[in-house]
Write a structure and sequence with these properties.
heterodimer; A: mainly alpha; 6 helices; 75% helix; extended; B: 102 residues; mainly alpha; elongated
Chain lengths: 174, 102
């Protein structure tokens, strides 16, 4: 059963990632990205990371994907037919990526990975409690730094997205 | 045939290669951003796989939490930059924005 679910989610992830990368239409790519994130969330569940799976759905699907769709809407002329997104450097890109994928696959197959001995004893258990207590004990400093980074990113993004319009307003009023 | 660490690493490697391909070859800046998101997701799969198969400790999941936090911040800032570029150049094709070259 575990195998079937794993192969299902792996197929969903990789197939929709292929659509994301190779589709000519950027709107199709954005919607295929939804299925990629969903498949990755399923893989997280198979890896006993329930909290991360829900976080993936909330932040990637609910936040980043909506941001990307807004970006697509605001930067493509939907009136004209410029919604196609072409590729360039296809041949060098394919060769570089093929070499990289071959290298990674060879490395993964040949390495003798460390495997924990008590694999069979691992049962399904929730990780939210452990993550929560780790966030306020051992990982307190990165947690606080991350909150400051998010605040700076929000303020910076709002400033950057608004700056041009403020400038034109000032020049118009002069 | 049981699912081992290798299976998850292979899935992650394929996702990473797709992301690198999108970053290298797509013209649209938003497609490049989608490629970066694919790369970050593949890194997260690696973190969680090593965390799960290395004895089920919580450290890998903590790293994945911070990767997701930084991905959210990165997406917000990068899209603000892309919007600014579109306002100034009226295109988001990364090969046409060669202003610094001239």
């Amino acid at each position: 059963m575990y195998e079937i679910i794993f192969y299902f989610f792996a197929a969903v992830t990789i197939g929709s990632a292929g659509v994301v990368v190779f589709s000519r239409n950027i709107v199709y790519s954005a919607f295929a990205l939804f299925f990629t994130f969903f498949g990755v969330a399923g893989i997280y569940v198979l890896l006993n990371a329930d909290f991360l799976a829900v976080t993936q759905l909330l932040i990637y699907v609910g936040g980043i994907l909506v941001l990307i769709l807004f970006g697509v809407m605001l930067t493509t002329n939907t009136v004209s037919v410029d919604i196609k997104a072409k590729s360039l450097n296809t041949l060098p890109a394919v060769s570089v990526v093929a070499a990289l994928a071959g290298l990674l696959a060879g490395m993964i197959w040949t390495t003798d990975w460390f495997m924990s001995k008590n694999m069979s004893e691992i049962t399904a258990q929730t990780t939210s409690k452990e993550i929560g207590s780790a966030l306020i004990t051992t990982h307190l400093l990165p947690f606080e730094v991350a909150s400051v980074v998010l605040l700076v990113a929000i303020v910076g993004a709002a400033m950057m997205a608004r700056r041009e319009s403020v400038k034109t307003q000032i020049s118009n009023s002069k | 045939m049981t699912i081992t660490l290798t299976h998850f690493l292979i899935v992650s490697a394929i996702l990473f290669s797709f992301g690198i391909y999108a970053v290298i070859s797509r013209r649209n800046a938003i497609m490049v951003l989608m490629g970066i998101e694919l790369i970050l997701n593949s890194a997260n799969i690696n973190f969680l796989a090593f965390s799960r198969f290395g004895g089920m400790n919580i450290e890998g999941q903590m790293a994945a939490v911070f990767v997701i936090i930084l991905a959210a911040a990165e997406a917000a800032v990068a899209l603000a930059i892309v919007l600014n570029i579109y306002k100034r150049f009226h295109t988001v094709n990364v090969d046409e924005i060669s202003f610094l070259k001239d």
